[in-house]
Amino acid sequence: MQLSHRVTNxxxxxxxxxxxxxxxxxxxxEGKSVTELTIGEHDTRTxxxxxxxxxxxxxxxxxxxxVVPGTQSxxxxxxxxIQKNTGxxxxxxxxxxxxxxxxxxxxxxxxxxxxxxxxxxxEPYYATYPGTIRSVGARxxxxxxxxxxxxxxxxxxxxxxxxxxxxLLINSPNNPTGAIYGSQTLHDIAQICxxxxxxxxxxxxxxxxxxxxxxxxxxxxxxxxxxxxxxGSMSKSHAMTGSRVGWIVGPETAIDHLINLATHxxxxxxxxxxxxxxxxLKQGAQxxxxxxxxxxxxxxxxxxxLDTQSIVGLMPSQGGMYLMLDIRSTGLTGEExxxxxxxxxxxxxxxxxxxxxxxxxxxxxAMTVSDNAFATALRSLVGHAESIKL
Length: 390
Ligand code: PMP
Known about the structure:
Blueprint: H1 5-8, H2 19-29, E1 35-37, H3 48-59, H4 72-86, E2 95-98, H5 100-112, E3 118-122, H6 129-135, E4 139-143, H7 155-162, E5 167-171, H8 183-196, E6 199-203, E7 228-233, H9 234-237, E8 246-249, H10 252-263, H11 271-282, H12 285-307, E9 313-314, E10 322-326, H13 334-345, E11 347-351, E12 362-366, H14 371-389
Parallel strand pairs: 1-11, 3-4, 3-5, 5-6, 6-7
Antiparallel strand pairs: 2-8, 7-8, 9-10, 10-12, 11-12
Helix pairs in contact: 3-11, 4-11, 5-6, 7-8, 12-14, 13-14
The structure holds 4'-deoxy-4'-aminopyridoxal-5'-phosphate.
């Protein structure tokens, strides 16, 4: 039986850069010991206090259908947090609770793009972006950046793609580069969105992991409240990846339409998960900092290790749980380097090419194993690069 093109074309027949990840998982299933520095999964589990709140909510009976937009109290909690952090007026009516950031990305694109519309995104990108855009029937248009410009988008490149487009997806703090967009970049983006009538979809799932610079939500910039959809998630900020809970924040009218979409797709998020998310958010910045702390530490550890050599370059990382390393001096592509590193040292990293061609010759390292294991893996990685260059 024939399946729809919309679904069979999501990854356009490619593996979307996950080959190394699957190879590493295969090795693990064969009993080999692999240091996995691939996906954005914390090495700590969800805090037991959050699990207690989840358990309590479930045992108290919050296991039936939850209201589709999200519980009033979680929506209010998210709204208050966003208003406090960004200064932008936000009420529960601006918030839809979603099963994670990924489904929020899908909903934001299907709500703003007609089939065939141009949906812009910045390259290098979080691996699912082009597939998410294809899955709603829109056309993904990548705006390329370069290592030379710290992988930040340039105004002229966004303008060149903007005419006739419907939406622009940005991600700061950025996965995979660790860049945080500065105020000039965000003001340029806001101006272009207004001039060209674009929706801005701002993926801010790493907004609690800031190591340098300042995170600004572009929704708070003048003229942006009515055209910005912010994607948020409990996955990274509270180590709740498996709970699948996130949100979209946007204008009330857009949220009303998104609630209608949710009624016909997800039908909401489990009530006991929402109660746990509310409990977690109410613990405030202290818990968020505790969860971010290992990445803050390991970023400094990596700087110390990589400072002592010049073969592997470290892209300046300002936020998030990944480092982008430049391995061009080895003469290998990111894919070749990652593959040989896995074979020689049983260390799995993501090839830069998985995040778009402009990240070729780079690898992305997730800082998601213990400090000791991370330092050992980085030293082996440098040794591997040295042995190739000899
Ligand atoms: N956006 C970015 C940039 C991500 O890195 C991720 C997860 N790795 C997501 C969105 C989706 O996260 P989740 O669905 O777990 O909220």
